[in-house]
Specification:
The protein has one domain. Helix content is 68%, strand content 8%. The chain is built from 3 helices and 2 strands. It has a two-stranded antiparallel ribbon with strand order 1-2.
Length: 74
């Protein structure tokens, strides 16, 4: 969703996407999101919810920060 929004964002320049960083951003989000879901769906201890929450924070941060590095405005 964010990538589509950035493509239609009107700026006084051209947005140039770097495909490698874009794909890495999506993969970080998916991989850490899967790990988060696994911790919450199949808890081993009673504190697995905390690990799931931390993994979700990492997923959001990794995806957004990598996505920001994936484009350049010229």
């Amino acid at each position: 969703m964010h990538y589509v929004e950035m493509m239609v964002y009107q700026l006084p320049g051209e947005i140039i996407w770097r495909p490698g960083a874009l794909i890495a951003s999506v993969l970080f989000g998916v991989a850490l999101g899967i790990a988060c879901y696994h911790r919450l769906a199949f808890p081993v201890t009673r504190y697995c919810w905390l690990g799931g929450a931390i993994l979700m924070v990492f997923a959001i941060c990794a995806m957004h920060f990598t996505a920001v590095s994936a484009f350049e405005i010229k």
